[in-house]
Amino acid sequence: MIDTIEYGKNDSLRDEIKAYWSGRAATFDLSPGHEIFSEEEREAWHALILKHLGPGEGLSALDLASGTGVISHLMDDLGFQVTGMDWSETMLALAREKAKSRGRSIRFFVGDAENTMEPDESADVIITRHLVWTLVDPRASFAEWFRVLKPGGRLLIVDGDFVNTSWREKLVKKLAAGLEGLGLVKQDQPHKPADPENTFTSILSRVYFSNGARAGEVAALLRQTGFEPVAIDQELQAIHRAQAKNFSLLKGILRGLQHRYAVCAVKPGITGKT
């Protein structure tokens, strides 16, 4: 883990992260686990959001690192007034086109999730999916999100540890590789460009959670920021079961074994919800 952040040095890292995800934009929605591929999965996501954030009822929601707008659309489904922020204009172009084609009034704009430039106490809800593990400075980011949330506002983080693997995961990966090598099972179709220079690995080695974003550590940093209460939810099986139907059998099993979680954190104070 990186204990100190050197901003001059990490400006280039942020640029690399932006370029990497911009390069993933064209095929991003083709991957199970990114876009929603069934009503079963959509309902499972809705249930998770309602569990931690409640119904939208016109509340303002900021979707950070919104990408092509998958989570923004789920929030819009539930009645939130959604703004999606991402620093990849390539992702946002796809997000705007998707919202237009579906008749959604979601606003998308370019911005840095680690320095949003949003007004103080302007959002009822902030939501992120698969952002925290990429943060260069989560302490500064969490402080920024705390600032932007209204008193009583809620932050919902959906993320995972994509570095460490349990012995069960290693066993399933080994079994899958063996069966694929024998031609007994088909490989899952990759929906990302080739990465001959191992850009992803290079980026991962330099972010804060280079050793894996564990739920307990994320929750601890949120409490240090001032969020309270902070709750960890690892009951994401309904989402994983729905996603698994679009994977090979073994990859579907693997998805359920990974350390994936939601963390809900509340900014102390009286909520603006009536």
From TrEMBL:
Q: Which Pfam families match?
A: Methyltransf_11
Enumerate the GO terms in the molecular function aspect. Answer: S-adenosylmethionine-dependent methyltransferase activity
Instruction: Reply yes or no: does the keyword DNA damage apply.
Output: no
> What superkingdom heads the lineage?
Bacteria
Q: Which UniProt keywords apply?
A: Methyltransferase, Transferase
Q: Which GO BP terms apply?
A: methylation
What sequence ranges are listed for the domain Methyltransferase type? 62-157
UniProt xrefs under InterPro entries? Methyltransf_11 (IPR013216), Methyltransf_Superfamily (IPR050508), SAM-dependent_MTases_sf (IPR029063)
Protein's name according to its UniProt entry: Class I SAM-dependent methyltransferase
Originating species: Agrobacterium pusense
